[in-house]
Write a structure and sequence with these properties.
Helix content: under 10%
Largest sheet: 6 strands, mixed
Strand content: 35-45%
Distance between the termini: 36 Å
Mean pLDDT: 90
Radius of gyration: 39 Å
Shape: elongated
CATH architecture of one domain: Sandwich
Number of strands: 44
CATH topology of one domain: Jelly Rolls
Oligomer: single chain
Structural class: mainly beta
Number of helices: 4
CATH class of one domain: Mainly Beta
């Protein structure tokens, strides 16, 4: 039978429980009565606390018989510190939990004497629900559970990490899955140009490229299979025949060159399919003196764009079937993806009839950087949409999202150029495309055509470089391009650009392009720095792409095309595109763990963020998306907790700048709180940046 207990109230919200005296037995009766120790004082620095606050507790006691005392402390919730004991007193700190039921006495002090008799004192508290207290420490790498494509700055702040961008047009790959957006900047060409791209490995799989990366001549007729199929030149039958890329041939005639049979090229023949094949004396297209050499030349009877001339009757009349997206009209043989079917933003030009789609002038103004056709009527591959999300010509037509490019999967861009000058004058930097070359590199079969294809991979081009300069061109990308001829610029540069080392390269883009890049949100207000970019011939073939990745615009790079066979004026700004790698960032905080006796009821998040960069406004980039979760860790029976890979997120809607919201999470109770920020990718100079997060909560007992 237990001893009766004596209760007494000690000042300060402390309930003292005293044990009754215990008799000492000897022989047939009690010889002595031992008394329990008695509390003489109890202290409590704070009775009402906020979660995480501490209260210092103390007790003093005495033993009626003067014996030694021992003290112990226990807590049903909250956290006890290390106790400090004296002969007759003891102190300890207690940290309040996230929540506490009303009228709770979570802390107990026990004093025991040498006879095992003890007394206890219990301390009651009130823990207020405080959602205003910040539980987010200053940003640090160690303070985040996950940082994906995001970096912590020394400030500290969190920013989307810059995506890797290509530095050479000869091999365009990305180390990680990367979404790409391409924006039309402008054009100064007289030709009608269409931009597209292919996966390199698709051409390998089709047999156009060997394991060493060289173009293949599988039927050994002297013309590389890629070039042969662009124009469908292979004979219709016999050992040198190749499958027709398309449905049926428009032109059924053949011609001979050096005792080899070829088909009349649909894409390089007028409506009559009549051509001439003549042995002509032309200046050698290779660098040097351009001595006159004898060569075969295939020419259409006229350069008239009348339908159905210069067409292989595919999805688009002026685009090679091979470079169209797969479609019934090209026999599903297309490998390409067409981004801009008409890269033109000014009134109709002489080359307009050779465009893939008609030129539609939206307004009397010229050069606004918006293509003159309804871009959104076609999807990212160039296929017509069943429903146009943005009918008409609008600023949204300036950009196209290409989708996600898989890691390490190489892409090759191409320009289909129609209606430009057709002439052979190597000393002036203009040549006919070359279909076949002798072992010494001399062209033995030229093609006269108003439709040319230029690749970002120089070795795939059909025109030779008649000048042979190394580099073929160099430009200062932040400087305005000169109005004089591009070739003369390399000899006698204008005074517009500063000296770079020992050289003084000319500028690259016209002034309106530079202004458009800096002022239009679609380009991220990109101000190009004074940096040098170059390109060079490969195996004697003319480069047609100038690629630059400005240091001032992380994740952004640009392509400028030269659309004249042989390089022409070599300004490489006939048509210009800006590319943005769209790799968003993610920052997920570590969990704030509550006592398991508590569950979260409300969460408060206040944040400060913004777009860092000149001229960047809240409309340039979508705001950072925030969310909170209450199940951010999974804990086992032993109390070991691991991060939950898929918490139940509650999204928060917050604008750019400083903003705060409180969300009721009582329908999703939990005790493991964290937040995340989905950071949009940078655009041009505009850098989405998270400066601070203040995280508070309210909890209730389970």
């Amino acid at each position: 039978m237990s001893s009766p207990r004596i209760l007494s109230l000690v000042a300060g919200g402390v309930l003292s429980v005293l044990a009754a005296p215990r008799p000492a037995l000897a022989g047939n009766g009690p010889l002595a009565v031992h008394l329990p120790p008695q509390f003489t004082e109890a202290t409590q620095s704070a009775e009402s606390l906020f979660p995480g606050d501490a209260s210092q507790l103390g007790v003093s006691a005495t033993d009626p018989e003067g014996g030694p005392l021992t003290f112990s402390w226990s807590a049903s919730t909250g956290t006890l510190g290390t106790q400090a004991d004296g002969a007759n007193d003891s102190q300890v700190g207690w940290t309040a939990p996230a929540c506490l039921a009303e009228d709770s006495t979570p802390v107990t002090a026990t004093v025991t004497n040498a006879y095992g008799l003890s007394s206890t004192a219990s301390f009651d508290f009130h823990v207020a629900a405080d959602g205003g207290r910040d539980h987010q420490p200053p940003f640090s790498v160690a303070g985040f559970e996950q940082l994906r494509d995001a970096t912590v700055l020394p400030d500290p702040a969190v920013r989307t990490a810059a995506a890797a961008v290509p530095t050479s047009s000869e091999r365009i790959v990305f180390p990680e899955p990367t979404a790409l957006r391409v924006s039309f900047v402008g054009e100064t060409a007289t030709a009608a140009n269409a931009l597209g791209w292919v996966y390199y490995d698709d051409l390998v799989a089709r047999g156009y490229v060997d394991a060493q990366g060289a173009l293949v001549d599988g039927n050994a007729n002297g013309i590389l299979d890629l070039h042969e199929d662009l124009y469908n030149l292979a004979p219709p039958s016999g050992p040198k025949a190749r499958p027709y890329v398309g449905t049926t041939r428009r032109c059924t005639r053949t011609f001979l060159s050096e005792q080899q049979t070829f088909s009349v090229p649909d894409l390089a023949s007028d409506a009559s399919c009549a051509i001439s094949v003549a042995r002509r004396s032309l200046p050698d297209a290779r660098p040097g003196a351009h001595a006159v050499v004898a060569t075969d030349v295939v020419s259409p009877s006229s350069l008239s764009a009348d339908e159905p001339g210069f067409s292989d009757r595919g999805l688009f009349a002026r685009v090679p079937n091979l470079l169209e997206p797969a479609h019934p009209l090209n026999g599903y043989r297309g490998l390409g993806k067409l981004v801009f079917l008409r890269a033109s933003d000014d009134p109709e030009l002489p080359g307009a009839p050779f465009g893939a789609v008609p030129d539609v002038v939206a307004s009397p103004s010229q050069g606004d950087g918006i293509p003159d056709y309804d871009v959104s009527a076609f999807d990212a591959q160039g296929l017509p949409r069943s429903v146009n999300p943005d009918p008409g010509i609008t600023p949204a037509d300036r950009s196209v999202d290409l989708g996600v490019i898989p890691p390490e999967r190489e892409i090759v861009f191409f320009l289909v150029s129609g209606g430009g000058p057709v002439e052979h004058s190597p000393q002036s930097g203009r040549v006919f495309p070359c279909l076949r070359k002798a072992a010494d590199g001399r062209c033995t079969l030229h093609l006269v055509t108003p439709l040319s294809i230029f690749f970002s991979k120089t070795a795939w081009n059909l025109d030779q470089d008649p000048l042979g300069r190394l580099p073929a061109v160099e430009r200062n990308i932040g400087c305005v391009s000169p109005s004089d001829d591009g070739q003369m610029c390399q000899v006698s540069p204008s005074g517009l650009c500063p000296t770079m080392g020992t050289r003084r390269p000319c500028g690259w883009l016209p002034g309106p392009y530079l202004n458009r890049l800096a002022t239009q949100p679609a380009y991220g207000h990109a101000v190009l720095p004074l940096e040098l970019t170059t390109t060079a011939p490969v195996n004697g073939m003319m480069p047609h792409v100038l690629l630059t990745a400005p240091s001032s615009t992380p994740g952004q790079w640009m392509l400028g095309f030269e659309d004249l066979n042989g390089g022409g004026d070599r300004d490489f700004n006939d048509v210009v595109f800006a590319f943005q790698a769209l790799r968003p960032g993610l920052a997920r905080s570590r969990a704030v763990a509550l006592d398991e006796a508590c569950t979260l009821s409300r969460v408060r998040l206040r944040k400060s963020d913004g777009l860092v960069g000149t001229r960047c406004t809240a409309t340039t980039v979508a705001p950072i998306a925030y969310a909170v979760a209450t199940d951010c860790q999974v804990c086992d029976a032993a109390g070991t907790c691991t991060p939950n890979p898929s918490p139940t997120w509650s999204p928060l809607s917050l604008p750019w700048g400083e903003a705060e919201t409180v969300v009721d999470v009582s329908a999703r109770p939990g005790a493991q709180l964290c937040w995340k920020a989905d950071l949009p990718p940078p655009l041009g100079v505009c850098q989405p940046t998270l400066f601070d997060v203040d995280l508070g909560f309210q909890a209730v007992p389970r």
